[in-house]
Amino acid sequence: MLILGIESSCDETAASVVKDCRTICSSVISTQIEEHKKYGGVVPEIASRRHCENILGVVRQALADADVTLNDIDAVAVTYAPGLIGALLVGVNFAKALAMSAGKPLVPVHHIAGHIATNYLTHPKLEPPYLCLVASGGHSHIIEVLSYTQFRVVGRTRDDAAGECFDKCARAMGFPYPGGVHIDNAAQSGDSSEFRLPHPVVAGNEFDFSFSGLKTSIINMIHNAEQKGIELNKNNLAASIQSTISEILTDKTIRAAEALGYKKIALAGGVSANSGVRAALSEACEKHGFEFYMPEKKLCGDNAVMIACQGSYNFLAGITADESLNAFATLSMEEI
Ligand code: KG4
Ligand code: ZN
Question: Ligand 1: which residues within 6 Å by Cβ?
């Protein structure tokens, strides 16, 4: 079974061919980061226009790299939610036209389910059920993966995502967009004990996150220091930010696993590339005797391999769409 996956939810236009759910035949990613860098973040209209210009070339390349033609493909899978609506619409419309004209089934894929699926590609033996922490630029979720296609959200962020917190703090520190990786690099030679940062307290669901208070307190600290002419040690601040975010994510995930009786934990999303988060969750799992899975670094950020992989499982479960498929900027995983 060969599935063509298409991803265009944010600033990466990507296409991939995956065989029998877990074998990567090709992966093409056209990133727009350099262009959005000038503005300090993704400009939605520019993102949509670049997807529009690049998508055909990216899909052609993915088919060529896999040494297949559209005829060999069993279904076309596409990210239809959540994300920037104009960006998603480009991918959805393209996939729809391609599938309908070639007489192939169209398979809708939720972007977060795609991130979770990166673990199947890295760990051939991993099977549901397990608990997954998904942390990206737009999402921070603790999710019960009940089966390949059924999910229950146990906790979510009430405000900013972990990646947003990394990126906005990085911007205040003078790093270019997207700043998460720069904080990661600076933290390597920093001491996390110099700055004591607040851990948010969230009322209600104990597995929900909140990162906006932490983000604001860090940005205020940086601006106050600037006004007083005090130079903060960037490496130490980066190490403190990274260890605080890692502790918050790890602590809630471990507590959720204990409360729900999961012994298998996975990590996914763009922030899963962060060395502090990877180490903290991996150590905590070892301490508690849990199995731990994380994607290889090249699959952490947005790509289409994850959409083709999850699309394969959706297709096997009979999840397909007709020509009325629409895109959604927000859509809970429980509604899919
Ligand atoms: O999953 P993703 O590529 O896009 C969304 O679905 O949002 O995640 C992008 C996020 C950005 O916030 C980026 O700064 C963050 O992942 N990120 C990192 C690292 N690499 C990517 N954050 C911290 N440390 C990293 N090494
Ligand atoms: Zn993503």
Answer: 10, 136-138, 163, 166-167, 178, 180-181, 184, 269-271, 273-274, 301-302
